[in-house]
Each structure stands twice: as structure tokens, then as C-alpha cells.
Design a protein that fits this description.
The protein has helices at 25-41, 67-75, 88-101, 110-122, 142-152, 264-270, 302-317, and strands at 6-10, 20-24, 50-54, 78-82, 105-109, 133-136, 156-162, 166-171, 178-180, 185-190, 202-209, 220-228, 242-249, 254-255, 261-262, 277-286, 289-296, 322-327, 342-344. By secondary structure, it is of the alpha/beta class.
């Protein structure tokens, strides 16, 4: 591999020590081709005007004052915004840019564009409508999709991929699952023993890639959970098989002492209907200890909200679980700028 034109890439490291992967030139060319195809699915040409709201600073060439990166951004007709730390000023500048320039496509961290949508709605800010939004780098919950699509008056195209293996699956115009990019990627859904599970059943996602000859990934356990769609055909005309949904990360599920677990997705949705909560993170410290970090909007009736959460949690974990509520102004993100709603430290 040392004779090849290669680079070192790493996983996001949101669940532990990042994994280093060697990637060759062919892998990079394949990735560029795939993304051109993905833009085509969104009815856009490869060099359409694109605004990128991204949290991994290593990707933000122009924002890092890297000359090569700035040239790449210009050639790609793209403008990059760093979402690792969203402030009121940065959100308003982002919205102002959208309203002024009206790009053809928005590419964004799911959590970041959701935060922008919440801020715009809460402050009754004007938002240009109709720009398709491509989301990735985190789970897109239904409540997030509904909010974003309402505020931006548009449709979301969800996307699934990773630093180690690139693009894997993407949503089409039917918005009913994600087509697996099956020419160069193989996706399997397996149980704890590594055996295939039937369509419509949840399991762990394995990815095999066929383009990176420097370091092929074979049946790579991503750490994500998903469900394969049972539908054989799609009205959009694309014949690739589909992932019905990405349901979360194995590390985001809370472990039970008896060997079972509670879904991180379910825990996230526990907070969805509580008025006044701006953002939150639930951390499992041990089998009997949970910390809940909350960012509130003014005048939240804290006791009422806490009682609601305690009632839900005790049904899941029993009466012996100790819950600690911690009210904060900011919840730290991962190194790549992602917000995690649930984290298990067990």
C-alpha cells in the first residue's frame, strides 16, 4: 500500500478510540462519483450551488483558512459553515446567507439543521423555502424531520455513510427508506451471532466495500442498528435494495443487568413532548445510575418535567434506578461536532 497514493482517515470516535483506515486514490474517486449520483437523485447537477452545515472541522477547508480547501470549495460551488458550535450569531448569519443567496442544495448534520430550525421557529425568523436538504452524520428522528421540513418548507433527503467506508445508502424522491449504493457496497443486517435477520427486523449493520484496495473492509461492524426493507420495488425507478431505517447506535442503547437493553431511540423520544426543553442528553453511568443533562427555555416547570421523565424511566429500569437532573447552558459535542442524545458508559 505504501506504493499507492493513499491517505489515513479515521472514524468519528463518538463511541471510543477512533479507528484508522488507509484509503487509496480509487476510493476517493469512487466517493466523488457516488456523491455526484446522489445529487442527481436530488435532481441537482454535480456542481450546483451548495451550502454545507458541517461539524467535523477537518472537512471545513475554507473555514480553516486552508488555501487548497478554499479553492476546492470555489470549484465545487460550495459554501461551508462550521456547526461544531452553533451560536445565535452564527445561526442568524447562516439563515441570512440562505435568504440572500438561495442555494440549490443544503447539506447538513441532521442535529445541526434541526437546531437551526428550532431557533428560527422560536424567534419567528424568515427562512427561504423550497431548498432540498441532505442530512447525515447522525440519526434523523421523525420529530426532527417534521420540524425541519416545516420551518424550511421543503423535503429532507436522509443519507447514511461513514468516514471509514464513505456513502452507503441514500433517500430518494419517495422518502421511504434509503437505497443501498449496491454497485460498490454490500450491507447486511445480522443478529448478535452474526447471522442474517429477515427484512423488517432490527439488527446490527455490517458493511463491505469493494473500492478501497489499500485496506478493504469486509463485513465491518459499524456499530449501528438498522432494518432492511421488505419492499422489492421503488416508485422512483431505482432498483437498489433499501434500508427501511437506521434505528440508532449500539452504544446509545442502555444496558440492563439481566442482559437486555433499552433502545436509545425510545429514550430520546421520551423527551420529545416535554415543552420547554431546548436540548438534552441522557447518560447511563451504571445499571442503577442515570444522569440527565437539560438545556431549558425560560419558565420551564422543572418539577413537572422531572416527574414525567421519572415515571417513564422507572417503568423501564425499575424503582431502584437513581436519576440526577443537571441543568446546563451547553452540552459538549463529540470531536466531530455531533450531539448525542443518549450515551451509555457501561
Amino acid at each position: 500500500y505504501k506504493k499507492k497514493d493513499v491517505r489515513i482517515n479515521t472514524s468519528g470516535g463518538s463511541t471510543g478510540e477512533p479507528i484508522k483506515v488507509i484509503q487509496d486514490k480509487n476510493y476517493g474517486q469512487d466517493g466523488a462519483g457516488l456523491f455526484a449520483f446522489i445529487k442527481f437523485i436530488r435532481t441537482k447537477d454535480p456542481y450546483c450551488s451548495t451550502v454545507i452545515l458541517w461539524g467535523a472541522t477537518r472537512d471545513l477547508y475554507g473555514n480553516n483558512n486552508n488555501l487548497k480547501g478554499k479553492i476546492v470549495d470555489i470549484l465545487n460551488n460550495s459554501k461551508v459553515f462550521n456547526s461544531a458550535k452553533l451560536t445565535e450569531d452564527s445561526i442568524e448569519y447562516f439563515l441570512s446567507y440562505l435568504n440572500t443567496k438561495t442555494p440549490d442544495l443544503i447539506i447538513a448534520y441532521a442535529q445541526s439543521i434541526y437546531e437551526v430550525a428550532c431557533y428560527a421557529e422560536m424567534n419567528n425568523l424568515s427562512v427561504v423555502s423550497g431548498i432540498p436538504i441532505h442530512t447525515g452524520a447522525g440519526q434523523l428522528f421523525d420529530f426532527m424531520r417534521i420540524k425541519i421540513e416545516k420551518v424550511f418548507s421543503t423535503k429532507i433527503f436522509n443519507h447514511y455513510g461513514g468516514r471509514e467506508f464513505g456513502a452507503v445508502a441514500t433517500e430518494c424522491s419517495e422518502h421511504d427508506g434509503l437505497h443501498i449504493l449496491n454497485d460498490t457496497r454490500l450491507v447486511e443486517i445480522v443478529d448478535a451471532q452474526g447471522k442474517w435477520v429477515p427484512p423488517e427486523q432490527e439488527g446490527e449493520i455490517l458493511v463491505t466495500t469493494f473500492t478501497n484496495l489499500a485496506m478493504p473492509l469486509l463485513r465491518y461492524k459499524v456499530g449501528d442498528l438498522g432494518i432492511m426493507s421488505g419492499n422489492k420495488e421503488c416508485a422512483c425507478g431505482i432498483v437498489y435494495p433499501k434500508l427501511k431505517s437506521i434505528t440508532g447506535r449500539t452504544s446509545n442503547n442502555f444496558k440492563l443487568k439481566n442482559g437486555g437493553f433499552v433502545s436509545g431511540e425510545y429514550l430520546t423520544l421520551t423527551f420529545n413532548h416535554i415543552e420547554g426543553i431546548k436540548n438534552f442528553q441522557i447518560r447511563q453511568k451504571s445499571y442503577s445510575s442515570i444522569e440527565i443533562y437539560i438545556i431549558t427555555i425560560d419558565n420551564l416547570p422543572r418539577k413537572q418535567a422531572e416527574n414525567h421523565v421519572k415515571e417513564k424511566m422507572k417503568k423501564l429500569f425499575g424503582n431502584s434506578v437513581d436519576m440526577k437532573f443537571i441543568y446546563v447552558d451547553e452540552i459538549p459535542k463529540t470531536k466531530t461536532g455531533k450531539h448525542l442524545f443518549t450515551v451509555s458508559e457501561i
